[in-house]
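Structural prep section.
Before we set up the soaks we want a predicted structure of the protein with NAP in place, mainly to decide which crystallisation condition to try first. Input record follows.
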Amino acid sequence: MDVIAITGAGTGLGKELALQYAGQGHTVIALGRRISPLLDVVQEINQLGGKAFAYSLDIRRYEDVVNTVDMIAKHHRVTCLVNNAGIGHFGPLSSLSVQQIDDMIQTNVNGTIYMTKAFLPYFLTMPKAKIINIISTAGLRGKVNESVYAATKFAIRGFSESLTKELEGTNISVTAVYMGGMDTPFWHGSDHIKDRLRLRSPKEIAKQIIALEHGQNEMILS
Ligand SMILES: NC(=O)c1ccc[n+]([C@@H]2O[C@H](COP(=O)([O-])OP(=O)(O)OC[C@H]3O[C@@H](n4cnc5c(N)ncnc54)[C@H](OP(=O)(O)O)[C@@H]3O)[C@@H](O)[C@H]2O)c1
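Run finished without errors. Recording the tokens verbatim:
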């Protein structure tokens, strides 16, 4: 059984992945900024007889990431990192504030890269390890009113593809996952999606990721 670290595990897709991985007997390390939703997920997993631990961190801050990953590595033999945490601000470029632009880039791009860089030295000492990057179809195609969000997701696509090549022949696999819209708190406070009923459930997407992911470099779920 694996020990799986998941960023953004307190809500949405990350929470579903945490519950389903734990249901299969894996240990979950639930990560995010707010400790309370993470503790709720840990409690739910424990009540179902699974094993999980919560650590609060802000993936935008490199020092926080390194310190937290070092602490986690002292207590757990993590063999899989799911870079799931991400944020989105939508609308014409002229309507986005510099703060919103920076937040998206720092979370989606820097955060994913920092987490991966921090776990990599540990993973290289394991017989086998996995990095799963949750991207979006916005990492495959540009979309109206999604310019900066799509730019961050294209960046992680490039990161994933390059890292796959860099780690070829090692014990570490990299999987980039591209999915369409999901009904999660990601859309709270946004009117970018007109009909949320058309969105897929994060439970269904998590199930697909877990069932179909076998270390391949790319998964397109749309
Ligand atoms: N929903 C969609 O339609 C959709 C479609 C395709 C791809 N995606 C991608 O799927 C991933 C998961 O999104 P979701 O839909 O499940 O949204 P969500 O429910 O809003 O989850 C995002 C999670 O990321 C965490 N997070 C945000 N900033 C963070 C930071 N600086 N440090 C640590 N954790 C942070 C949040 O927790 P805290 O606020 O407590 O930190 C939250 O739990 C994202 O990468 C998103 O881009 C979403």
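Observations: The pocket of NAP is lined by residues 7-8, 10-14, 32-34, 58-60, 84-88, 107, 111, 134, 136, 179, 181-182, 184-186, 202 (CB under 6 Å).
Flagged for discussion at group meeting.
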